[in-house]
Amino acid sequence: MKRLRKQLKKVNPFTSANVMSKNVIKEQMSHAPGHVVYTGSKEIKDVLIDVFDYNATFVEEETVHEFSSYTKDTDEKTVTWVNVNGLSDTQALTDISHKYDLHPLVMEDVANTSQRPKLDEYPDHLFIVFKMLYHDIDGKLNTEHISLILGKSYVLLMQEYDGDVFDGIRDRIRLSKGRVRTTGADYLMYALMDAVIDHYFIIIETLSDKIEDLEERIYTNPSENYSQEIQQLKKEVIQVRRSIFPLREVVNKLEKVDNHLILKKTQVFVRDLYDHTIQVIETVEVYRDTIAGLMDMNSTNIANRMNEVMKVLTIIATIFIPMTFLAGIYGMNFEHIPELQMQNGYYYFWGAMVFIFIGSIIYFKRKKWL
Amino acid sequence: MKRLRKQLKKVNPFTSANVMSKNVIKEQMSHAPGHVVYTGSKEIKDVLIDVFDYNATFVEEETVHEFSSYTKDTDEKTVTWVNVNGLSDTQALTDISHKYDLHPLVMEDVANTSQRPKLDEYPDHLFIVFKMLYHDIDGKLNTEHISLILGKSYVLLMQEYDGDVFDGIRDRIRLSKGRVRTTGADYLMYALMDAVIDHYFIIIETLSDKIEDLEERIYTNPSENYSQEIQQLKKEVIQVRRSIFPLREVVNKLEKVDNHLILKKTQVFVRDLYDHTIQVIETVEVYRDTIAGLMDMNSTNIANRMNEVMKVLTIIATIFIPMTFLAGIYGMNFEHIPELQMQNGYYYFWGAMVFIFIGSIIYFKRKKWL
Amino acid sequence: MKRLRKQLKKVNPFTSANVMSKNVIKEQMSHAPGHVVYTGSKEIKDVLIDVFDYNATFVEEETVHEFSSYTKDTDEKTVTWVNVNGLSDTQALTDISHKYDLHPLVMEDVANTSQRPKLDEYPDHLFIVFKMLYHDIDGKLNTEHISLILGKSYVLLMQEYDGDVFDGIRDRIRLSKGRVRTTGADYLMYALMDAVIDHYFIIIETLSDKIEDLEERIYTNPSENYSQEIQQLKKEVIQVRRSIFPLREVVNKLEKVDNHLILKKTQVFVRDLYDHTIQVIETVEVYRDTIAGLMDMNSTNIANRMNEVMKVLTIIATIFIPMTFLAGIYGMNFEHIPELQMQNGYYYFWGAMVFIFIGSIIYFKRKKWL
Amino acid sequence: MKRLRKQLKKVNPFTSANVMSKNVIKEQMSHAPGHVVYTGSKEIKDVLIDVFDYNATFVEEETVHEFSSYTKDTDEKTVTWVNVNGLSDTQALTDISHKYDLHPLVMEDVANTSQRPKLDEYPDHLFIVFKMLYHDIDGKLNTEHISLILGKSYVLLMQEYDGDVFDGIRDRIRLSKGRVRTTGADYLMYALMDAVIDHYFIIIETLSDKIEDLEERIYTNPSENYSQEIQQLKKEVIQVRRSIFPLREVVNKLEKVDNHLILKKTQVFVRDLYDHTIQVIETVEVYRDTIAGLMDMNSTNIANRMNEVMKVLTIIATIFIPMTFLAGIYGMNFEHIPELQMQNGYYYFWGAMVFIFIGSIIYFKRKKWL
Amino acid sequence: MKRLRKQLKKVNPFTSANVMSKNVIKEQMSHAPGHVVYTGSKEIKDVLIDVFDYNATFVEEETVHEFSSYTKDTDEKTVTWVNVNGLSDTQALTDISHKYDLHPLVMEDVANTSQRPKLDEYPDHLFIVFKMLYHDIDGKLNTEHISLILGKSYVLLMQEYDGDVFDGIRDRIRLSKGRVRTTGADYLMYALMDAVIDHYFIIIETLSDKIEDLEERIYTNPSENYSQEIQQLKKEVIQVRRSIFPLREVVNKLEKVDNHLILKKTQVFVRDLYDHTIQVIETVEVYRDTIAGLMDMNSTNIANRMNEVMKVLTIIATIFIPMTFLAGIYGMNFEHIPELQMQNGYYYFWGAMVFIFIGSIIYFKRKKWL
């Protein structure tokens, strides 16, 4: 039980990632707004920064350890994709903020892992926050805080952890596959978000497998109590829902944003993004309903089982109580009880008992009480 | 049980058609957006393409096996209806896409059978996705993914499976019945969607029959447990609801679309379409309520039955326990128990027992406990 | 039970009037849109058409059997009220449609009794569909499909059955009471709708009586099970709700309609209509809540009763089981049981039994278990 | 029970004041719209009409028995407040309607006590309907229908009953306290509505007292069944809610009304009115939740209690049944039962019984079953 | 129980702070609108007023006991922050109102502690009401009524109690840290509200700790009944929700306000404020769901436990009743019962009993009834 509880705690949807710890809040409160504090739990010592620089004819890839050592000018002729792996190096974040002239509040939200998905418009850049979901080796669901800043000719992507789902895009840039090399930073932003949302489908597919497996077991073996498993699945679905749900608004806003940063021809792709987001959200909603249904079925099963047990037990008692009464009758000490003197009285009595017993069973069966 | 479970699985509303399988997702993720991948399960070897070309005075009907062999020009003087039966020939879809100059994302959604109903506006064409519902031979409910593209003088209709509900329209075109030959492509689109929505009425009528049949049985034979049948009907209703519900928004958008593709005089018909859609949705909502009511009634019946059984059993025990006590009294070995010496004591005792038994029964009957 | 079930079926809210039968649908599907098919169940042989023609100084009343025989011109100087009693004569409907130059879809909806209440605006006329509710002789609730078409100087009213609530208006026209003779067709439309909505108050008053009567009985005789009566009342309320609810939108649209057909001074009356509609709807909503409350109360009563019975029975058993044990003690055959040799042992034993019995009763009463 | 039921009926929220009686409806239906019929139940023989006429420097107060005898001209230089106490004198209402040139439908709604709160704009006047709530001597909650008509320089206030909450305002007019004498009719309207809404706070405070008292009792004496009291409180809260809820929309409309009748500087006060209305409504909503919570707590208490009783009784039976079995053992008539010949066998038996009894009790206590 | 009840009462969410006491209402009703009455319960004798006056180069700090003694002119060159600690000195409030030329209704709301959070726009100032939440020494949650008035160059902050969360801001002003000294009054307003919302995170963190602790205990020790603790936590969450929820609208309005008082560059910060508010509200909503889940789990646990107990007890009875019957058999006095004459009959009987007992236990275990 203790172990299970611990495991449950790990996926507790409102403590793991979405509420800042008290210490962090206190630290932050002692600072003025705009101060960058990393609120997550993963300290990465060596924050690596990958930089892609490309246009239709040219591509350059570089990995820097300290952003201050990256001195290339921001150049409108190429698209620059700066990818920061780890948020604990707040100095790097501040450097980036200065180089790209970002609003002071932006980096505060980049480092604040409890920030919910959102889209903020600034005159020179769009700031998008969303959540990556992935299962770790133990099958536990983790949330990763990702920030994306879209400028005229650059995309800044800040991830909380190492490793991501963007290798396909990197390959497409390197090998000049698809549209990405021939389009601007806005298409890169779309491609990145599309990869994240595509990954959501895998997450919900895993959820679907778990739910179906549980459903199967509840049907084939209804006598077990699955309530804790169901509760845990429910928490997982809620966690997914909380990460994905605000994205609907973000992508919707992105579709309607009236900004020179997003070209007309990219807007069609954003609409496609919106479709996929809706599809993910609807599927998650269906899972919620399904889990509620499983919960109902589980408690109905348990109640039915309990009722069955009680009924059988009560029937046994009900048959034997009158029989005990009759045995009591012939245990009485009245001076004159004619049956007692009968030669085969005892056998007749047993006959009566067997008759009553079998008769009752047949009667109850016929009334479908047994 | 196992068999039932399998059957249930087939209509599982969130796995059958609406969530892409993991493999497909993975395959798709390795491609850039806009790449056409068929996500359904029905591979049709020979995808037939029916083409109607007509105006008020002229009609031509042709069936081609490969779209590349269809070389007729798109001509604004006639309405062209291209009907693709099967989505597994992605090459044909790509060819069509090029011939009619469609946006690259359109064909991705045409082939993606998990795409929910939607309406996308493009400068030169409208793209509509909806779902056909039909019962197969086993009475199982199937969903078919249908895409419709409306251009200036053409309608492209892409269906997942062979066979459809449009034969009436084909006859009307051939025989020049009704308005269809004298109006444009927009009216053809309306006629096609109208046929689909009319077919929904048959689907919900079948559902209605099933629900009424179940209701009848619950009323006439309340001692059975119908929960699994109810659960299955509920899943079916949910599946219908998920296919039809988004159509409300689609038709609503279609009614309000400000586009030269839909003529003013056709808009009145679209409004009629909207009315019918609402009517279908409302009926489905009523079914949901009805099924919830059946569920309540079923569990009330089961609980009542259980209570009745327990009550009767408890009453039997309650009558016999005091009688057993009295029998125990006269089984005691006190040296001086006057009743035991009475000549007819035993008969008096039996008299008292019968009196108590009948008296209790009458008392319980009068108190309506029995 | 069987009889009740039949009765319930009659008021089944989703089969009686709102869903077309499969045959009708199939018939309709084989026709092009705009084809007039009567979908109700009441075939009236001789469809009578009443025509009123009036202005401030003049009134003429006529009944025609075939509309084709009514050849008077539509004249803007008088208001014409054409009242069709019965929808099975589709020829008459088509004739009217041609004479008043109505849109082809209008007559389809007039004859389609499953059409929900709605308001459609056409350039030359307004088309309103609503439902009349009335109790027939058996107290059964029936729905009548009514269509109203408002033109510049005419009102066409098509009713499904004979008999209506408009006799008051007919008298006012004949005797020139109130405003109706001095105002236009729009005021006549208002007066007709007002009469229908006023009649709703009688319907809901009857419902209120039934609910109060049931409530009274549940309070005074809580030991009965009223769940089927409640269920039936609930169905009736749902039927009323489904007929009236869409009217809110209709009247709201009518209030906001920007159309030369409705004069400014009539709009104030339409606002009044809206007030009454809201009032009816709110009352029906209260009824829904009340019925839900009755249902709760009923099941609480049943559960309480069951609990009471079980408690009393258990208490009887609980008292007698220890007493039986004691009787068993003195039925034992130990060689040396001192109490058995006592002169009055048997009487002492009875004394102890009575003491235990009365003591237990007092104890349970004091603990409020009895 | 009967008495309680009667009392409940009095506050029945959907019959007392909000639905017109059938007779009244029928009477009204036989008249044309605009006909004034009093639908309440309180016939007041002598309807008194109080008239205040004031401006910054002048104040005159008059009470008239028949409005026709009040012949003073409506004068824009003074504010006139006409207060009608009782609605049964429909002649007076009609006279007022003519003198102030009101729309014919206004007086119909003034006399129709089942009219829900609303605001109607007319070119020359605003028409507001709201409900006064007060507790009568028996603590019963009553609803009073109040209509207010705001003109350029007059306020007409029509109340259903004698006695009101406006004495403070009368004093302020007489003594020229506050702003009322120096401002126009619009401020008077605000002051009157403010007095009504302030009175709502007293009503909900009384409700709060009742709820808290009940809550206290449920906590301190959880073994009682409070469901009927809770049900009654719930009905009272629903009644209050129905009277106040539509006022939100009324005041909101009043705040946004674009009308020369309400001066800019009065609009700030109307906003304040809106705040207070929201506050009342929110408090009532909290009460609803609290009552739902009480209901839950009450039924949990009852179930717990029942469970406790059943558990204790079952435990008694469970202890004594094995003991009775053992007594039965030594009541058997086997020829050779060694224990029976033991000198102290009987005492050993008793020892065993006491041991089993006490042991079971300790065991059950330790397992927290007792 | 009594003590617990008292404690509960203290945090009663609808009586403690949000509904004015009847006396206060009555007092207020006897006054004209705009009269300032303190409706809270904390009388502070010596209301201290702290005044900050600063710009980029200059800062002055002063504490006055009577506002009338503060005679400095309001000067647009410096930002003035007037902080009133305590609302019981209504004279001071009136003085401030006159000096800053506030609308008469503003001070009424400042002193009315039951006023819900809101934002009112006036031509020269914005008036914001919100609630501070803090835990007192006993861990009880208290609500403090705070009003903030933003003018061109001043911020008036009126708090109900001493002590606040603004010391960080005071330090930043004194030491010229962050932006506050170089920006206007609008940024000061933002900083103050930000401090309050940051403090909400600590409050909800404490709530989170309590909920997690309770959850832990329900999991590890499911046999307890936690319903009262859960109920209390629920009330606390509701109290927090009621204080924070209306703030969403306030900050949203603040973001959209079109007013010269809030500079463009401050609006970005207000948007950040909105993000945080949403985050707090969403977390509180999750808590509500979690508590509902705990409640379910708690009652399921209790029901399961009860069922387990009943099952075990019933099983004991069920085993012993047939055994008692058999003992009764051999206690009968038939003249000829062969078993009784057997030498080891008694031992065989015991053997049978032990066999039945153990057999039943094994049977029940195998059927998972035990």
Can you describe this structure in just a few lines?
Chains A, B, C, D, E: The chain crosses the membrane at residues 312-333, 345-364. 5 copies of one chain form a homopentamer. Chain A has 370 residues and is of the alpha+beta class.
Please provide a written account of the structure:
Five copies of one chain form a homopentamer. The first copy, chain A, has 370 residues and is of the alpha+beta class. Helices cover 55% and strands 14% of the residues of chain A. In chain A, helix 3 (90-99) packs antiparallel against helix 4 (104-111), helix 6 runs antiparallel to helix 7 (227-256) and helix 8 (264-329) packs antiparallel against helix 10. Chain A is rod-shaped. The first copy, chain A, starts with a helix and ends with a helix. Chains B and C meet through helix 6 and helix 8 of B and helix 1, helix 2, helix 4, helix 7 and helix 8 of C. Chains A, B, C, D, E: It is found in: Cell membrane; Membrane. Chains A, B, C, D, E: This is Magnesium transport protein CorA. Chains A, B, C, D, E: It comes from Dokdonia genika.
Mean pLDDT of chain A: 84
Number of helices of chain A: 10
Low-confidence stretches of chain A: 1-21
Sheet having the most strands of chain A? 7 strands, mixed
Greatest chain-chain contact: B-C, 62 and 69 residues
Please, what is the oligomeric state?
Answer: homopentamer
N-to-C span of chain A: 36 Å
The secondary-structure element order of chain A is HHEEEHHEEEEHHHHHH
Gyration radius of chain A, to the nearest Å? 34 Å
Q: Helix- and strand-based class of chain A?
A: alpha+beta
Count the E strands of chain A. 7
> What portion of residues of chain A is helical?
40-55%
Portion of residues in beta strands of chain A equals 5-15%
